[in-house]
Amino acid sequence: ESENTCQVHNPERRPDDQDPEGCCVESKQNNTEAPPYTRGELGDEKGLPSRPNSSGRHRGRPGIFFPTWTPPHGIKSRRLSHFFKRFEDLGRNFIPAFVQDTIQDVVQGVDELLQTPEDLEALPRSKQHCVATNLLAGLENVLSNLSQALPNGTLTFNASAGTDLSLKVREQGDKTVILSQNQVTMMLNWDVVHESEDSGPSVVGLVSIPGMGKLLVEAPLVLEPEKQAVLHGAHKGVLPEVSSVLLSDVISAFMNNRDTQNLSSPITFIFSHHSVTPGPKQKVFCVFWEHSLDGYGHWSTTGCRIVTTEDTSTTCQCTHLSSFAVLMAHYYVQEKDTWLAVITYLGLSLSLLCLLLAALTFLLCKTIQNTNTSLHLQLSICLFLAHLLFLLAIDRTEIKVLCAIIAGALHYLYLASFTWMLLEGLNLFLTARNLTVVNYSSVSSIMKKFMFPVGYGVPAIIVVISAASRPHLYGTPTRCWLHTDKGFIWTFLGPVCTIFSINLAFFLMTVWIVKNKLSSLNSDVSTLQNTRMLTFKATAQLLILGCTWCLGILQVGPAAHVMAYLFTIINGLQGVFI
């Protein structure tokens, strides 16, 4: 077994995807000290095991070796292990004279693996991309080696789920080579294939792998500087992060010319894909899968360009060989609204000033200190810190790790604010209930005992669980806030809606108690008036905080711009009201 020399080096991977073990791709031709069953010559099958169910009609060239293909390092998958066990069996039973049968088995094996990936789809995205890199590199290596044993001519291999392989083998040929399949056509100059110093026939191959897209979901796209400059010229504020969706099948092209990084003439691919019309922030790209040293990879546009694109087809030209596809990229634009920015800064600055004054008042005025003012103090502190962080760092998206930390801190502080508001509602209900219960004197002691563990502990538990389950969803391309993918935003909206509903129930019960108490002739007027005032303040506070985030949720569709202004204005009034 060869030594693993892979190194971890991939600047395009997200911080949450980092794997200290790496994910190596190792696939090479086994041409030293090969066991007897890995080699054979045409017409010389003496001493070799017979191939079951072979008709003997496929005859290969002499001197071919069966290549090795090792699994990606650090990936645990029953489905993948079964695939590589099947590949090892092919190696043990390999007979060069029946190389076409072997190639068909390899294509069918990859096809079945991708048709039903099973536990592979449960892996993290980065691990799925690692498996895809291994399969693409390994399949290309295996097919390019085995195809050298084929006789001259054009051959096709088809698998049940749509994986197709087209090969052309020639000693010498015409100027142009064309390989066509259902969804893609490849055209190249035969001189490019003949540039190799290898003796013997020249081989060029094209394999379409429609199932590979299952393992390349959310794969990163890296645009070359020239294409980035075009986007920045067309739109101000274009952000570096780009999301993409595959439009075509993933294909791999190979030849026995090993120097395929900078071909003397470009290769043309004509992809057929489902009908698509790019939107104002979308663009179609011809891309290739660029492998990294640690076994991961990303889509790249380097060396590829679009010749023409229509609704259902795209023509690409590339100056190198690899695995290719056509994808639709959605890029993000940081749109500036000057008036909204001014309102945000003025409103939050005023809110911060009022919250600071309120906190100092509750903290320094000994005569008014009680359970209610203590709850108000904690609410003021949480809102002050949340608004300050929002004002200073909400758009600091340059460093993803820092942005994720900011998003997590905002998540915690706003949840803590709502939790303290819930405790205020509970305290108000217990105070009102105290008016109707004889010797009900333990409200204050209970609140003082449990309010800090609940007020700061419950939000911490929610944030820790959220961060542990999906850390990569903290931070978006435009804001250091929670991502909306997979409903992750509900780790904030869910608790907020729950608190809003519980507090509303508390306030309705409090109003009912106060109303009934007002009808009693033996009421303590001063206590009732105080309770009524607290009820009014707490209800207004609930509406201010609750309505603010309701407006934030409604920032979609045609009314998004209006809702953004209302959200900003009311958000700035929170501190003023408190």
Concise structural overview:
It comes from Neovison vison. The chain has 578 residues and is of the alpha+beta class.
Query: Secondary-structure element sequence?
Result: EEEEHHHEEEEHEEHEEEEEEEEHHHHHHH
Average predicted local confidence, pLDDT: 78
CATH architecture of the largest domain: Sandwich
Report the portion of residues in β strands: 15-25%
CATH topology value of the largest domain: Chondroitinase Ac, Chain A, domain 3
The CATH class name of the largest domain reads: Mainly Beta
Number of strands: 18
How would you sum up the major sheet?
9 strands, mixed
Query: What is the terminal-to-terminal distance?
Result: 70 Å
CA-based shape:
elongated
Describe the structure.
This protein has 578 residues and is α+β, with helices and mostly antiparallel strands. It folds into 2 domains: 15-333, Chondroitinase Ac, Chain A, domain 3 (Sandwich), CATH 2.60.220.50; 338-577, Rhodopsin 7-helix transmembrane proteins (Rhopdopsin 7-helix transmembrane proteins), CATH 1.20.1070. The protein contains 12 helices and 18 strands. It has helices at 78-92, 99-115, 125-146, 190-194, 225-234, 338-364, 371-393, 400-434, 443-469, 490-518, 525-553, 560-577; strands spanning 27-28, 39-40, 64-65, 68-69, 153-158, 164-170, 176-180, 184-189, 202-209, 221-222, 238-246, 250-255, 267-272, 282-291, 297-300, 304-309, 313-318, 323-333. The strands form 4 sheets. Strands 5, 6, 9, 10, 11, 12, 14, 15 and 18 form a 9-stranded mixed β-sheet that branches. It has a 5-stranded antiparallel β-sheet with strand order 7-8-13-17-16. Strand 7 (176-180) and strand 8 form a beta hairpin. Helix 1 runs antiparallel to helix 2. The chain is elongated. The chain starts with 26 loop residues before the first strand and ends with a helix.
